[in-house]
Amino acid sequence: MADAAALAREVQGFVDGCAALERAVARAVVGQRETVDHVITALLAGGHVLLEGAPGLGKTLLVRSLAEAVDLSFSRVQFTPDLMPADITGTNIVVDDPKAGRAFRFSPGPLFANLVLADEINRTTPKTQSALLEAMQEGIVTVSGTSHPLPEPFMVLATQNPIDMEGTYPLPEAQLDRFLMKVMVPFPTAAELASVIDLTTGASSGRVEKALTKETLRAYRALVRDVVLAPNVRDLAVKITLATHPTDPAAPQGVRKYVRHGASPRGAQALVACAKVRALRAGRAHVESADVKAMALPALRHRLILNFEGEAEGLSTDRIVSEVLAATV
Q1: In the CATH scheme, what is the code of domain 227-329?
Q2: pTM, whole model, 2 decimals?
Q3: How would residue 206 be classed by pLDDT, with cut points 50, 70 and 90?
Q4: CB 47, CB 273: distance < 8 Å
Q5: Which of 92, 146, 270, 281 is the most exposed place for a label (fewest CB within 10 A)?
Q6: Burial class (CB in 10 A: 0-12, 13-18, 19+), 147
């Protein structure tokens, strides 16, 4: 009974902490409730996020506000075609030591921050993207054969502009798969746009206050991993992931006709990790089927590869994932 009461207190503390974090971010970011919700979920699950939306929708402001609300170090990198790996990872520089003479010293790059905003990530070359990929997957950067650990927690929030694709380098599937979520950032409604104007053109602007600490964030992440996952709910995540493959017997017609490759095992892991966060935010220490299905779109949309027919039809992977959900019971 004592353990149950302690767990209930931990869960309630998690719920209250997430609510405080949402309120803090909302002081600077108007609207975008679903986007903020998904980014917070990824932060608590310990994953990276790919944000796709037109310019000027507050993506940079969202990431900066989140860093301020959790007292995390923040770094922003504008990705351009001439950006080199050393520009983000850092490099060895020659320094003069009065005692030892000249020596090499590692000068950290902008990746050495808790929250890294990779702005317009698809505008840089694959060589630089590969340097970011090591950081995302391993939590380290390697320079001149020496590995340097990145600070904990470490999270990459990358942005893409879906409108102007000229001169871009599409992210390889292996890199897309490292993102826990792909979040679509919508254009604000008329009421939200009016609030944005009032907030940004008036005498005062929204000030983000600290809502969580790094230690609290680490404790929340540990609690997420302890959320109970029943075998039937786990099997649902497996069925959804497998049903995105055209060779799977349970795959719906749309998948068989339009999909070339389905989601990887990381897709199933992302489904479960995000579902656990969603369950805790709802005040539950166990995952329900609804949690898994609710996180399917952001966790899987970027992991499906359409075939030529699907591309020619102009289909979105969201439609395919929705068809999978409708066919999975």
Answers
A1: 1.10.8.80
A2: 0.90
A3: low
A4: yes
A5: 146
A6: exposed
